[in-house]
Amino acid sequence: MSESLDADFAAFCAAHPTRSVWVGGHRWEYIDAGAGGPPLILLPGGFGVPATSFRYIPALADNRRVIAVGYPPGLDIMADLCDGLAALIDALGMERAWLLGGSASGFVVQAFVRRHPSRVFGLILAQSGAPRPARARLSRACAGLLNTLPMPLIFGLLRLSIAADLRGDSDGRRFWRGHFAEVLAQQCRAALVSRFRLAADFDANYQIVAQHKHDACRVAIIESAGDGMIGPAERAALRALYPAAEVYTLVGGHNDSVERPGAQIALIRAICASGRCATIQHSTFSIQPSAA
In this model, does residue 208 exceed pLDDT 70? Predict the structure, then answer.
């Protein structure tokens, strides 16, 4: 599988080069594929880059426009990142779009829909969680360390974290360990620090998000029953923030979204094609991931 994934990734990058545009004084990277609407914007989880979504983009772009984006370094306040994303949507000629926020990017999606609700046709929160004010201190501490430690030490620690999270000798895990190690090697200090400062901002300042208006767009939640990063309490807290959302529960863990994405891709396609998401309350579906 590793050789297949290596070949698939190389072929994807050749066919879908990463582009860039300057908006609001920041350089945004993105991959733009497909046509049709409403368009779907994929936001990166963790330290992902647009090409990390190489298994999602072709599968989702066969019947709609799909844009995968990366965050510019230095945008470490959530409101500023949301305003920059809105400016990017303008620059790419879109009015409204579906937004998919996976893992940490679920925080960005939740902040964006409250700051720019008219730009969101629907939002999908995948393996993500609700704000936790107590977690903000840890994120700030991580940002502080990343801002002071020597870069070789930072890269070494982050590579160890990736190896621990994706431990094992399967071909797929070897591919993803190599991919994320390469992505990290391309990151500057400002980009790494920004990720943790954004998380701290979300946790500290968005704890009353349930009082904001978000009922003008459709909402779907995809969770994983065996998710070790987003536990049952946080998943319940997220559902409580969106009582009209349709909730889907996949069998598997947090990393299945990259290692075994077949079921999640099929689910995203169905959600974007359906108009039901805002009308069904707390419907839960158990779906066995495919081998794709």
Answer: no
Q: Angle at Cα 73 formed by Cα 67 and Cα 76, nearest 5°?
A: 100
> Can you tell me the distance from the alpha carbon of 261 to that of 290, in angstroms, rounded to the nearest whole number?
8
Amino acid at 267: L
CATH class of 2-131+209-287: alpha beta
Buried-exposed string 71-110: b where 16+ CB fall within 10 A, e elsewhere: bbbebbebeebbbbbbbbbeebebebbbbbbbbbbbbbbb
Pairwise CA distance, residues 260 & 284, whole Å: 20
Which residues does residue 15 pair with via DSSP β-bridges, in sequence order? none
Q: Sheet containing 40-43: give its strands across.
A: 19-23, 26-33, 66-70, 40-43, 97-102, 120-126, 218-224, 246-250, 286-287
Q: Which residue has the higher pLDDT, 215 or 99?
A: 99
Positive or negative, the CA dihedral 221, 56, 71, 254 is positive
Instruction: Give pLDDT tens digits for 176-203.
Output: 989 988 998 888 999 999 999 999 999 9
How many C-beta atoms lie closer than 10 Å to residue 22's C-beta? 11
What residue has token string 């070897």? 174
Phi, psi of 117 (to 5 degrees): -60, -30
pLDDT, the chain, mean: 86
- pTM for the whole structure: 0.88
Taking the C-alpha atoms of residue 184 and residue 192, their distance in angstroms, rounded to an integer, is 9
Phi, psi of 122 (to 5 degrees): -165, 160
